[in-house]
Amino acid sequence: ISQLHTAAVSSVQSELQQWKTHAQRLQTEKDALETRLQRQQVKHLFFAETDDDRFEQQSSRYEERITELHSVIAELRKKNEQKTICVIREEDEFEDSDDGNVSKSGDAFSANENHPNDSPSTYGWNLIDFLISADLGNDFNAELSRVVTQLEKSRLENQITQSTDEKPAMVKETLISGSQCNVNLQVAEPNALVVRLSQLEEERDSLEEHCRQQDIEAERFKLQLSNVREERDRLKRKVRELQTRAQSLEASSSMSPSISPVKQACMSPTPQGYERHASILHGPVPRRAEMRKLRTGGKVLGAEISSSGLSMAKVAEHLSQSFQECSNVQELIQTASQEGNVLSDGKINTFEIELERLQSKIDNLKSQNDLLTLTLEESKGHCDRLTVLIGKYESNNTALQLVLGCSDQAIEAYQALMQLLETDQAVLLANCRAAGLGAMEESSEQFQQDVTLLLQNAHLKRKSAEHHAKLVLQRREVGRQHCGSPWEELSSSRTASTTSSTGSDTEFTKQDEVRLRELIHSLCSERQAVKMTTLELESVHVDPLGYEATPPNPEAQRLDLENAVLMQELMAMKEDKAELKAQNFLLEKERRSFELQLRGKESQEKVYQVQIDHLKSQMDENQQRLGIKDPKKDDGYDSATPAITLAELRSNNASQIAEDLSESLKRERRLKGRVQELVATLEKLSKNSEIRHQQSAEFVNDLKKANSALVTAFEKAKKKYLSKVKKLEVQLKTSTERYEAHICALNQRVSHLEEESIQLRHEMSETSL
CA 358 to CA 368: how far, in whole Å? Predict the structure, then answer.
C-alpha cells in the first residue's frame, strides 16, 4: 500500500511539474507576444507620424503652388487686359494701313456676329491667330484664348439683348441678312466687309444717341414726378391744418353748454375721492371726441425714416416711440373711463408708473441691443478689412518665397562658378609647378611625387566642380521642362542623377560656363521681376480712412455709433428716472398713510375734547341746580314758613318760568352745537376710515402681488434645486453602482486568490507527504 501511495504521489508530482513547465512556457510566449505587440505599436506610431509629416509637407507645397498659380493667373489677367487693349488699338491702326489684314479681322468678327449660336471657341481661335500674326508673343496664348472666348461671348450676349430690347425688327433683319450671307461669306470682298462694318457702327451710334435721349427724358419725368409729390405733400399738410382748426372750433363751441351740469355736480357735498372721480367722469369732453374715436397713428418704422435720408434709423425710432406710447396710455385711460370702468387715481397712477418703468427698461434693452449690433457691424467691417489685408500679406509672402527660391538657386550657381574658377586656378598652379616655374629643386624625387599628387588633386577637384555645375544646369533644364510640379520632383531628381551619371563622361566646355553665367543672370532677373510684384501695405493696427458714401439726403444728420452710445445712455437715464419715480410714488403712498393716521388721531382727539366739554357742562349744570335747591331747604328747616299771598306766588312763578325757559333755550343751543360737532367728527372719522380701508386694500393687493412674486420665485428656485438634487442623486447612484461593481470585482479577485493559495497549500502538503 505504501508503495502504491508513493507511486501515486510521484505520478501527481510529475504531472504538476509538467503543468508548471507548460505554464512557464505559456507565460514566456505571452511576454514575447506582448513585447512584439509593443514594438509593432511603436513602429505604427512612428510611421503614422512620419506619414502625417510627409502629408503635411506635401499639402503645404501644394498650397504654396496653388497660391503661386493664383498670383500668376492674376498677373496674366492684368497683362491680358492690357494686351487686349493694345490689340484693339493695333487693329484700328492696321485697318487704316492695310486692307488685307482688315478683311481677315472683319471675317472673324462678322463670322461670329452672323453666327451667334455657334460655339465661341472658333472665334477665340481666329482672334488668337490674328494676335499671333501681329507678333504679340507665344507665352500667353493658351490663357488668352480662354479669356478672350469668355469676353467675346459675354459681349455678344449683351449686344444681342440690347439690340432685341431696343429694335427687334432691325435685329431680325440683320440676323436674316447674316444667315443669308453666311454661305457667301468666304468669297466676300474686303471692301464689302468694310462697308458692312461702317453700317453697323452707324447703327450703333444711332442706338446710343437714342438711348441718351431716352435717359434725358426719363430724368425730366423723374423731376416732374418729384415736383408733383412735393405739391401733394404740401396740400396734405394744408388739409390737416384745416381739419385741426375745425376740430378746435367745434371743441370750443361744445364747451359752453357742458359747464352748467359740471358746476351743479361739483356743488353737492361729496367726499374728496368722489369729487375727483366725478371730475374725471363728468369732465368737459369735446363732442367730436364723444361722437368719433380718435385715430391712433401707426408706428414709425425704420424704412420710413431711412427714406428721408437717415442712414441709421434705430435711434430715431426710439425717439419717436416715446411720444406714441404717451398718447397710447392716455387713450387707454380715456376709453376705460368712457366705458364705465371705475378707476381710482391711485390705480391710474400705479398703472402709469409701472408702465413707464417697464417701457423705460424695454427701451434701455433695445438701445443696448442696437449698440451691440452697431459694434458688431463695425467689428465685422474691421474683420473684413483685416482678411483682405491678410490676403495681401499672404500674396507678398508667396512672392518673397519665390524670390528666396530664386536667390537660393542663384547662390548655388555662384558657388558652382566659384568652384570652377578655383579649380581652374589650382590646375594652372599645378601645371606651373610641373613645368618647373617657381621651383628650387627640380631633380629631387620628393618634388616629383608632390607635383604628381598636386596634379591629381587639382584634376579631381576640377572634375567634381564640373560635375556639380552640370548638375545645376540639368536641374534648371528639368525644372523648365516639368514646370516645377512638386509631385514630379522625385522623378526629376532621378532623371537628373541618371543624366549626371551618363553626362559625366562628357567634358565641360566654355559653352557650359557661359550657360551657367546666363543661368545666374536669368535667376537674378526673375528674382527682380517677382520682387516687383510685392506691395507696400499699411499696418494691421492702423485704420485707413475709408471712402464714406454720401447719404441720399445731404441735409440729414448722420447717426453713427457715437449717437447710439448717447442714446443708450439716455435710455439708461430714463430707466433710472422711472425707478426713482416709482420709489417716489411708494414714498408718497407711505406719506399719505401717515397723514391719514395723523388725521385719525386728531379726529379722535377732537371727539375726546367734545366729550370732556360735554361732561364739564353737565357738571356745571348739576352744581348750579344743587346750589339753587340747598338755600331753599335751609330756609325751610331753620325758620317757619311765612304767610305768602296769592299775588306773590303768581309773580314768583312767572319769573321762575321765564328763567327756566331761557335756560332751556340756552341748553338746546349748546346741545345743537355739540350735535353738529359730533356729526362733523363722525363724518371725518367715516372719511378717514374709508380712505384707510382703501389704503389697506391697496396694501393687501401689493402684499398679494409680492406674495405671488415670492411664490413664483420660490417655485423656480424649488424646481432648480430639485433638478440639481436629481442630478446629484443620479451621480450618486452611478458612483455607488460603480463602487459596488468595483467592490464585487475585488471580492471575486480576493476569493480567486484565496482559492489559489488553498490549492498551493494543498499541493505543498501533498509534495511534503
Answer: 15
| Residue whose C-alpha is closest to residue 677's, from 600, 618, 607, 616 | 607
CA distance 454 to 465: 16
Task: Specify the pTM.
Answer: 0.34
CA quadruple 329, 334, 340, 341: dihedral, nearest 10: 20
CB 364 within 8 A of CB 572: yes
Average pLDDT over every residue of 410-435: 84
The count of residues in the chain is 769
CA 107, CA 188: separation in Å to the nearest integer? Answer: 9
**pLDDT (tens digit per residue) in 595-642:** 877 887 887 787 788 778 878 877 887 887 776 555 444 444 444 444
pLDDT in tens, 528-563: 888 888 877 777 765 544 444 444 444 434 456 677
Report pLDDT for 318: 53
Radius of gyration of the CA atoms of the chain, in A: 58
* pLDDT band of 4, cuts 50, 70, 90: low
Burial grade of 648 (CB within 10 A; 0-12, 13-18, 19 or more): exposed
Q: Give per-residue pLDDT as tens, 703-742.
A: 888 888 888 888 888 888 998 899 999 999 999 999 999 9
Write the single-letter amino acid at 528: Q
Is residue 84 a contact partner of residue 148, using CB atoms and an 8 Å limit? Answer: yes
Give exposure, 282-319, as e/b (b: 16+ Cβ within 10 Å). eeebbeeeeeeeeeeeeebeeeebbeeebebbbbbbbe
DSSP-derived 3-state class of residue 386: helix
Residues 578 and 331 sit within 8 Å (Cβ to Cβ): no
State the CB neighbour count (10 A cutoff) for residue 210.
12
Angle in degrees, CA 392, 394, 397, rounded to 5: 115
Amino acid at 521: H
Cα 333 from chain centre: 41
C-beta separation of 346 from 698 below 8 A: yes
Amino acid, single-letter form, for residue 605: E
pLDDT at residue 744, rounded to an integer? 92
Residue 426 one-letter amino acid: A
Determine the Cα–Cα distance for residues 454 and 110; give it in Å rounded to an integer.
78
How far apart, in Å, are the Cα atoms of 641 and each of 95, 631, 632, 645, 656?
Answer: 173, 14, 11, 12, 20
Return the amino acid letter for 550.
T
CA distance 86 to 102: 16
Burial of 531 (0-12, 13-18, 19+ CB in 10 A): middle
Q: Which residues contact 251 (CB under 8 A, 6 or more apart)?
A: 286, 287, 288, 289
Residues 6+ apart with CB under 8 A from 563: 312, 315
Give the per-residue SS3 of 319-378. Answer: HHHHHHHHHHHHHHHHHHHHCCCCCCHHHHHHHHHHHHHHHHHHHHHHHHHHHHHHHHHH
Q: Which residues contact 247 (CB under 8 A, 6 or more apart)?
A: 286, 288
A 10 A CB-CB count for 109 gives 18
Q: Which residue has the higher pLDDT, 16 or 546?
A: 16
Q: What is the DSSP string of 63-91?
A: HHHHHHHHHHHHHHHHHHHHHHHHHHHHH
Q: 47-68: buried (b, 16+ CB within 10 Å) or exposed (e) per residue?
A: eeeeeeeeeeeeeeeeeebebb
110 in Cβ contact with 143 (< 8 Å):
no
Residues 6+ apart with CB under 8 A from 259: 284
Does the pLDDT at position 60 exceed 70?
A: yes
DSSP character at residue 558? P
Q: Is 600 exposed, middle or buried (0-12, 13-18, 19+ CB in 10 A)?
A: middle
**Residue 313 in grid coordinates:** 434709423
**Beta strand segments in 68-153, E:** none
